[in-house]
Sequence to fold (279 residues):
Amino acid sequence: MAKTIISAAVVGSGPTKEMNPAVPYTPKEIAEAAIGACKAGASIVHIHVRDPETGIVCSRFELFKEVFERIREGCNVLINLTTSGGNIKGENIIEERLEPVTLRPEICSLDVGSMNFGNRVFLNPPEWGPAAAKRMREYNVKPEIEVFDAGHMRQAIKLINEGLFEDPPYIQMCMGAGWGIEATPENLMFMISLLPPDIPWSVLGVGRMELPMITMAFLMGGHMRVGFEDNIYLRRGVLLDSNAQMVDVAVKLVEQLQGEVATPDDAREILGISKNTTN
Ligand code: MG
Fold:
């Protein structure tokens, strides 16, 4: 059986310390959460950054750089930096969103579609996807194509068919995020039915649907994502005390289902990422 990649999205843009005191804000806290997740069995860590004082999501390059360097020193995990551009405003949004790519992490997220997300609009206009794909290719960074709904999948497939990605393209299906597709078993089956054949793919589920969605992902041959970006509870009314604790749940799930958790080097092989010392 193929090995299962566990990604840990350790901070995201939404959760606060008021919701769960273990949510990391500073680069040191974010890096420690990532390294802890790696030690627990995650082979990829997905990173947003926060204003260290306020915890408000931001996209300051020096914060990405510090987190990136601290994780690199700490473990062999694949680093996946977001390009969702939290709080970037103004004229030059595309260029600013793509700044983390220049750090040459193994992976950057690439959102293809626009949608309502909480009380804001998550804007990914038609020119964004091709521009981001081109820049990531220049820097030898694997895009993790995030889709939040069926129409996003169609957009992703169009870009794949246009040859914008190195093989294999890698898709993350975000279930129950914002006003995207609801996280139900039927919806996940439908989304899986839309995937191009023979590519690696992963699933996340928001809130209480995290565990059901990653379980289904495993059963259907996919990879899985957990972490505070998606869920801060161990079970109803019980907060997680770390990202590593939920990674441990995922590891035990895979093992109980007679699967095998991918190491970082396994994940590199599955995703076609060469081990590059400049990375
Ligand atoms: Mg993210």
